[in-house]
Each structure stands twice: as C-alpha cells, then as structure tokens.
C-alpha cells in the first residue's frame, strides 16, 4: 500500500530514539527531507518499505536513521543486527563516511565486507560481528558458507537494499532475492527496506523486495519538480567559425557551443551522453573550446574517476561529462543543472539524470536536452512530457532465470550441507522472481547439475548433498555477472599492446574496418584472431575526421515512447493537411511540449515535406509501407524490441520465400529491409497478415539457432550450470560454439540462453499483439478486435521513399564526421579481399578446380583444360557446391547449389576479376554480387564500400537463412 501524506507539521524525527535525535542536531539535520518526513514513521514501526525518490534526497539516512534508532533501543546482541546491501562493488566513500559517523556517534559498530576485504578483517568480523554490515549481493552469498557468520546472521533484524531498481532488472537481483529467503532460514522476520530511483511499477519492485506481500510504498513525485527544456541549437555565424577550429560541422559546433554556454551559466553541471564514445568525442571538442569540464565513464580507471569526482565536488571543475556511470548514487556534491546530449531514450533515464539537480537547496530539478535531428527531437519531447506526467517505464524483472536457480541450489548446499529437493524448491519459490517456477523445470536443473557433478542427487531419498564439485563451482560463480574473456588489443604499427576488449564486444561487433576508442585514441580493427584472443588494430590518423562506427549497446526505446512520438507526428500531420502553416504548428508544439518554436520548427520540417509529398503520415495505429526498387520500409512506431522481433521474422520468412538473404535494419520507428528481386511490399504485408501470432515465439527461436549472440549467451549460461567443464578444458571458443549448441540443445542450459536472449533483445508478446492488430486492421478502421480487445492497425502502401521513412538510423549517425571519411577502411577491405582465397571451378567441363588467392586470379579466368570462360568463383569452404555440380543424380539442395555455381560462373564470364572480388566477400553470393557489380559508380572505392555494406548485412541476417 502507498503511505498517505503525513499531517502538516508532523515531525518525522520524533519517531526516533532520543540518542538519534541528539545526533541529528549535532549533524545539522533540522528539517527532514520529503522522503524522510514520509518514510521514517512507517520504518520506525517496523514496516517493510520501498522508498522511491531521486538521488540526493537523503535516501540513505531515510532508511538508516530508523535502523540506528531500533538498534539504540534494543539490548545488545552478539550478531549482525542490520545488513546494508548495495550493488556498487565498493561503497562510495561519502556514504561510508556518513554511516561510520552515525555509528561512532551512537556507539553502533559499522563495518564493510566485499570482495576486497582482507582475510584478517573477515576473520575479525566472524569472531566479533559488527552491528551494521555493509555488503554486496555476492558477498552475502559467501557469508552463508561460514559457521560463525551463519550464527551472526541469525540476529539480523533489518535488511536495507540500495538501488533496488537496478537489481530488480538484473540476474544479480534475482540471485539476491533467493539469498534473502536463504537468510530467512536463520533470521526469519527481518524488516526489508528498499531504496529506489523513480520506476513505473513500484508495487512490482516492492514485491520483488519482500517476496510477494506489498510493502509500504513511499514515492516522491519527481515530475512536478522538473524544469526541462528540449533544444535543437540554432547554427550561428560563430558556429561557422568554430567548425574549422573543432574539425567538425557547424551543426556540431552549435551543440558544443550551447553545452559550453550552459556549463558557464551554472555553478555545477552534469552533462550526460548515451555512450562512452560520445563522451570521448564531445569531451575533446569541449576541451578544445576551453570548457572547464572532466570526463567520467565506466571504462576509465578507478583513480581517474575518483580524480574527476573529487575535482567536481571541490569546485575545481565546472562540469562533468558522463555516461550512466553517474546515474547510481555517487556523491559529487551539489548540482544545479543537468544537460542530456541527445534523447535519453527512456523516461526513467531522464528522471534519474535530471533528478540529480537541485535537491540540496530544495530547488526544482532543471535540465536541458540537446537534440540533433527530427527523430531525436520528437523522442525527447515525448520523454520529457511523460516524465513531467510521471509516466515511467516498468522495471523488467528477470522472472524464472534457470541459471540463477542452479547457482542458488549450490548456495543453499553451501549453507546447509544437504537439503531435501522439496525444501530447496520451497525456499527458491518464496523469492518473487521464481514464484511461478515449474517443478518440472526445477527437476531438470537439479539433474543437469547432478550430471555436471556440481552436486550429489539421491533421487530415492529426495536429497541434495554437497560434493567437491559444489565447492569448486560456488566460489567460481559467486556472481551472476557473466565471466568474459578479454581479447588483447595489439597495435600492428608499433607492436605494442594497447589494452583489452571484452569478448561480448568482439563477438557482436569487431570486424575488419570497424572503429572504436580506447585510451583516448581511435583505432581501426584490421584482424581478429580467435585462437590467440587478439584484435589487431591500426591507429586512426585523423580522429577529428571520424567517429567510431560502434556506439555500444543501444539503449532500447520503449514501445510507449515510440507510440507517443507517432502521436505527435500524426497530430502535426493532420494540422498541415488542414492547411496550417509551419509557424502555426510550431507554436502548437511549443505550447504543448517543453520546447521553443525554433526547435519545433526544425523537427517539423520532416513532417511538412512528408505531407507535401502526398504521403500518409504514420501514426500509432497506422503503418505506412514504402517500396522502391529493392527497399521496403515499414514506418512502424513500436519501439526497438518489438521492431527487432518483427524485423527478424519478416527477414527470415521473406528470405525462405526468395531463397536469398534479406538485409534488415531497425530503429524504434522503422523496419528497413533490402529484398532480392521478385519480392515486393505486398509480400511483406502478406507475411504480416498471415503469420499466426501464436507461432511467433517458435519462429523467433528458430531464427536464433544460428545467431552468434545466442551461442555467446549459451557459453555464459553453461558456465553458470557448471556444464562447460564437461566439454572443454579452457576457453569456450576452443570447444567451439556450434558444438556447444549441439551438445546442450535439449537441456535447461539452452532454454535459459533462449529465455535471456528474448528478455534482453526482443519483445515477442508485444510483437504478437501488433500482428493481431495488423491482421484485424484491414483498411485501418479503428474498431476494437472482438477476440483480443485490441485497436486494429491499418496498413497503407506507397511506391516511393518518404521524408519520415528516410529519417531513420542512417541519418542518425553521430554528427562528428564527414561522410566517406573511411579511406583506410577501404584500403583494409581491398587488402583482405585480394589476399582471400577462392575456388575456381569450370562449369563447362566440370573437371578443373583450383584454390587461388584473389590477387593471383587473371583478369578473365578460363579453364586450362577446356578453355571455357564459364568459371565460377566460390568461397574456399564451398566444396559441397563443386560436388553438387559433379553429382550425376541431384537432390533438391544439390540442384540449388548447382544453380548457384552457374550463376557465379555467368558473372565471372561477364565481368571477369571484378566478379571474383565481389564473390570472395563474406556472405556475398551471386545475387548480391550482381547488385554490387551492376551499380553505376565513378569511384572504385564505392565498389568496395558496397561490398562492405553487403558483408555487414550478411553478418546481421545470416542466422535466418544459413
């Protein structure tokens, strides 16, 4: 239940012990903050409580003052009386100092225990436990293994969980919820307190905290205290001059200037960006301009982060340019303004970021969002409006993660030594994320762990017992944060080691020609050596002229935000269709949303041009399909995850229909497809209208089976089941991800890898609802669907590209580089293709074949045996194609392979070595090679750019049609 507003003038501090009240006066606490005023009374009476409030509103004292009060009024005990659990690997210094001050003042011993705590200190804590122990979710797990610590934990009466919203959306949090139920076996009935940033579903987060019962919820309204302005800077003459100095466009110069102005106008400004690369690129330009600003992100060393935190807090820096590294409760002193560069993508992020400003002086939290293009502006307007209304996204709990069950079964055994399977099941299912865990799934997990020798299973006696493997597994898997290999980054020019890259980065991104930043320098990938776990790079000579093509994992825009953007566009479009001028509509936008007329005017240009082209404006219940040449674009405002799901299915099914790859790219507002000849917009629409929504999940799962992302996830999950040691000695890559997939396909390991991939990247349920609405839509009449109560979605087709359709991701590249600033990328691609090998095979006599480097192939290859120029160029692993052509009797697959060889030979016969080069590219078959070759171009480099584009499309879509 939500806590009602207290009676005006009521003193929350009166509910505290006299010693605590005396310490409050000495500390200078005269008036409680709003969270303290509303939460201390229910906390003092022992209620479970979730406190939802922005950073900087005194949440730590809100939770801990009643805890200190209870300890002060209670008879001393031997054990730990309160646990303060934080997801931060090391409690920030300010918070630790504050808690230690209260402890010293009240005679309450406060100590910290985490991964870096010394053995001596651990032993001391076991022999003489502190009253309050500050720890992490992982260290709590380890505490169950010590006999003395288990006795100490029996006295726990309060558990405070900081940043509970972060944990609720992570497997670390799911692990912690079972850990709390494990703790109940020693200390039943302890009070649970959660401290959270603003979330859309506090009741659900509250149940996550308590295990099911709804706690008292104290929620501070943030939206009514926000002052947000969305601005797209106007380019001035000064910006034109600045552009040369900053080696960038005038548009970007205007962004840099406005941020500089805002930092200079305020005392202490946080400038948030969405990616590490943007922080580096924007930071270098701000420093060039003389802005007194530091850079703070998770890839910097701990000492570098502490230096800028201290400098900012001491007033030596006027601003801090940061990523989400500053969203958690790191104290950097008073902040009076927050700048968000580009849309924050989610309402909760805007609230967490802008909410950091103004609290120390009871001010309104003020922030400015700097936008860069129409999509960005409309998205920021929608998010700002939703933030002001308090309409926040729900936390996405990891329900039923099976690797967490495996992990916690071992945790229970480390505490109890042995336990009945029924008893373990009951403890685990008391935790909220596992309330619906099926007994059958639980038994499969137990059997998998038994087969992996992680525990001993006595099925006849229904007993689980600890084994030697339990010890080894447990200490290797204290954390649910997956272990990842690190690839060494080697500078080919100098031979020196630059640093390391995480395996996830390498698997999902790294390829020849890609650019990234490390150590403040920009590097281009030349080669990835899987066996040596090394990435060979060369420095980018002109970092001012390029931007990294990889921008990290993109923050997904939610469905509701994308629908809101569609609604703004649709309403503006209707006004234009009725004859309103741009100035009039811009005034409407500026009146309705927190922005100025210039920003509205600039964003509306896209909608004006769209209406002038007589194109229907896409809306929340209208999908506009564009079709031109081989491009099919669905203007569908359903958010990242839903569009990714629909795009995967469309790409897979159209690819099966045509027998060729269908390239796909999505953003929150569009699904862009490049289709082979013979496929039209009507085919995409037919696929949407005939695909059974109830069959969507199996279709998506089928498409995932060949995806590198699933295989990578499978290796991580397998480690959490203790399964990898059954298959290899070291390094998942050594065993081979394909073999691992085959070995684990019918196991709970595979089921969990699929579940997590769907949870993180896709939205199958929402996409199924969209399909139902599309299939109910017909001509778009907005009548409710009788079967599901869903508003139908109409589809309109237009045979041209439109301004809104063209405004997608390709136009949203970071505005920090001119186009085609990629000479060294093209040189790398040329060099690689020339050194690649191909199979040359005569399709006339079928007798001759040879493997040869591309650079050694003559301009017009011919067969040395029969003299024919009908020579196919095939990838070096395509032996089955040669065998298929030579087979006297062919099955259906061999017929397709033969046709592929003949088409390749026809290309080589017509275009010579140019065709050989195109056919040597990765995933570029005869169809795509013909597209590249037949394109008119003046610059040879464009030929290689097109090949690289096809290779990237293949890498993205190969899981659907390999």
Automatic annotation (TrEMBL):
Residues 40-217 form the Helicase ATP-binding domain. Signal peptide: none annotated. Residues 258-403 form the Helicase C-terminal domain. It comes from the Archaea. SMART domains: DEXDc, HELICc. GO terms for biological process: DNA repair. Pfam families: DEAD, DEAD_assoc, Helicase_C, WHD_Lhr. GO terms for molecular function: ATP binding; ATP hydrolysis activity; catalytic activity, acting on DNA; DNA binding; helicase activity. Keywords: ATP-binding, DNA damage, DNA repair, DNA-binding, Helicase, Hydrolase, Isomerase, Nucleotide-binding. Belongs to the Lhr helicase family. Lhr-Core subfamily. This is Helicase. It comes from Haloglomus irregulare.
């Amino acid at each position: 239940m939500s806590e009602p507003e207290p009676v005006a003038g009521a003193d929350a501090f009166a509910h505290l012990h006299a010693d605590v009240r005396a310490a409050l006066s000495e500390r200078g606490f005269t008036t409680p903050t709003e969270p303290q005023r509303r939460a201390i009374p229910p906390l003092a009476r022992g209620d479970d409580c979730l406190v939802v409030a922005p950073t900087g509103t005194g949440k730590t004292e809100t939770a801990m003052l009643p805890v200190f009060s209870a300890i002060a009024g209670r008879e001393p005990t031997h054990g730990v009386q309160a646990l303060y659990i934080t997801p931060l690997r090391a409690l920030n210094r300010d918070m630790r100092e504050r808690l230690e001050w209260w402890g010293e003042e009240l005679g309450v011993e406060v100590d910290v225990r985490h991964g870096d705590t010394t053995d001596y200190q651990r032993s001391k804590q076991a022999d003489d436990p502190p009253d309050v122990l500050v720890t992490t979710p992982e260290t709590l797990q380890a505490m169950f293994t010590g006999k003395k610590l288990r006795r100490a934990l029996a006295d726990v009466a309060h558990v405070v969980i900081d940043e509970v919203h972060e944990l609720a959306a992570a497997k670390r949090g799911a692990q912690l919820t079972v850990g709390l139920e494990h703790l109940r076996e020693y200390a039943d009935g302890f009070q649970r307190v959660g401290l959270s940033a603003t979330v859309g579903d506090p009741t659900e987060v509250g149940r996550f905290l308590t295990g099911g019962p709804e706690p008292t919820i104290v929620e501070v309204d943030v939206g009514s205290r926000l002052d947000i302005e969305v601005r797209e800077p106007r380019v001035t003459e000064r910006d034109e001059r600045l552009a040369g100095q900053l080696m960038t466009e005038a548009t970007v110069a205007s962004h840099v200037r406005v941020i500089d102005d805002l930092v200079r106008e305020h005392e202490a400004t946080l400038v948030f960006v969405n990616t590490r690369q943007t922080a580096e690129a924007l930071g270098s330009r701000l420093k060039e301009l003389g802005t007194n600003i530091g850079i703070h992100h998770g890839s910097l060393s701990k000492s570098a982060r502490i230096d800028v935190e201290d400098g900012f807090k001491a007033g030596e820096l006027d601003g801090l340019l940061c990523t989400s590294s500053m969203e958690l409760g790191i104290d950097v002193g008073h902040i009076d303004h927050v700048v968000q560069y580009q849309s924050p993508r989610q309402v909760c992020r805007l609230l967490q970021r802008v909410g950091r400003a103004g609290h120390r002086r009871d001010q309104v939290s003020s922030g400015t969002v700097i936008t860069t293009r129409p999509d960005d502006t409309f998205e920021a307007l929608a998010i700002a409006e939703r933030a002001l209304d308090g309409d926040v996204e729900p936390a996405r709990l990891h329900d039923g993660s099976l690797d967490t069950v495996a992990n916690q079964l071992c945790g229970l055994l480390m505490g109890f030594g042995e336990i009945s399977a029924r008893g373990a099941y009951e403890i685990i299912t008391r935790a909220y994320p596992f309330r619906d865990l099926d007994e059958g799934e639980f038994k499969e997990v137990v059997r998998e762990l038994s087969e992996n020798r992680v525990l001993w299973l006595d099925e006849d006696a229904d007993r689980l017992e600890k084994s030697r493997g339990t010890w080894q597994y447990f200490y290797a898997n204290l954390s649910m944060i997956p272990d990842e290999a690190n690839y060494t980054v080697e500078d080919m020019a100098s031979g020196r080691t630059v640093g390391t890259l995480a395996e996830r980065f390498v698997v999902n991104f790294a390829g020849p020609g890609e650019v990234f930043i490390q150590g403040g320098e920009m590097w281009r990938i030349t080669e990835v050596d899987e066996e040596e776990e090394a990435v060979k790079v060369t420095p980018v000579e002109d970092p001012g002229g390029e931007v990294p093509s990889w921008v990290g994992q993109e923050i997904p825009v939610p469905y509701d935000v994308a629908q809101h953007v569609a609604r703004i566009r649709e309403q503006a479009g209707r006004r234009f269709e009725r004859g309103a001028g741009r100035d009039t509509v811009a005034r409407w936008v500026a009146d309705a949303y927190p922005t100025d007329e210039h920003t509205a005017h600039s964003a509306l240009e896209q909608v004006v041009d769209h209406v002038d082209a007589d194109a229907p404006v896409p809306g929340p219940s209208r999908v506009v399909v564009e079709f031109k040449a081989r491009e099919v674009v669905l203007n569908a405002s359903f958010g990242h995850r839903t569009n990714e799901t629909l795009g995967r299915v469309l790409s897979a099914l159209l690819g099966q229909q045509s027998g060729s790859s269908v390239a796909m790219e999505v953003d929150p507002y569009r699904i862009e497809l490049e289709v082979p000849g013979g496929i039209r917009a009507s085919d995409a629409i037919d696929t949407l209208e005939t695909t059974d929504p109830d069959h969507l999940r199996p279709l998506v799962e089928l498409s995932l089976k060949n995806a590198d992302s699933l295989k990578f996830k499978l290796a991580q999950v397998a480690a959490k089941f203790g399964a990898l040691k059954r298959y290899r000695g070291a390094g998942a890559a050594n065993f081979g991800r394909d073999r691992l997939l085959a070995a684990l396909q019918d196991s709970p390991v595979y089921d969990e890898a699929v579940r997590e991939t769907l949870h993180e990247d896709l939205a199958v349920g929402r996409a199924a609802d969209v399909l139902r609405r599309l299939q109910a839509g017909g001509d778009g009449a907005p009548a409710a669907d009788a079967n599901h109560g869903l508003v139908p979605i109409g589809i309109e087709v237009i045979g041209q590209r439109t301004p809104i359709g063209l405004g997608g991701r390709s136009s949203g590249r970071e505005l920090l580089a001119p186009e085609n600033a990629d000479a060294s990328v093209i040189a790398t691609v040329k060099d690689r293709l020339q050194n690649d090998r191909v199979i040359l095979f005569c399709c006339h006599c079928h007798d001759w074949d040879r493997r040869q480097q591309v650079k050694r192939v003559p301009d017009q290859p011919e067969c040395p045996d029969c003299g024919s120029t009908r020579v196919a160029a095939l990838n070096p692993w395509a032996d089955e194609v040669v065998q298929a052509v030579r087979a006297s009797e062919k099955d259906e697959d061999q017929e397709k392979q033969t046709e592929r060889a003949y088409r390749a030979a026809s290309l080589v016969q017509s275009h010579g070595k140019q065709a050989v080069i195109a056919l040597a590219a990765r995933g570029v078959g005869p169809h795509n090679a013909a597209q590249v070759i037949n394109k008119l171009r003046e610059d040879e480099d464009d030929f290689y750019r097109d090949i690289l584009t096809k290779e990237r499309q293949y890498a993205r879509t190969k899981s659907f049609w390999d």
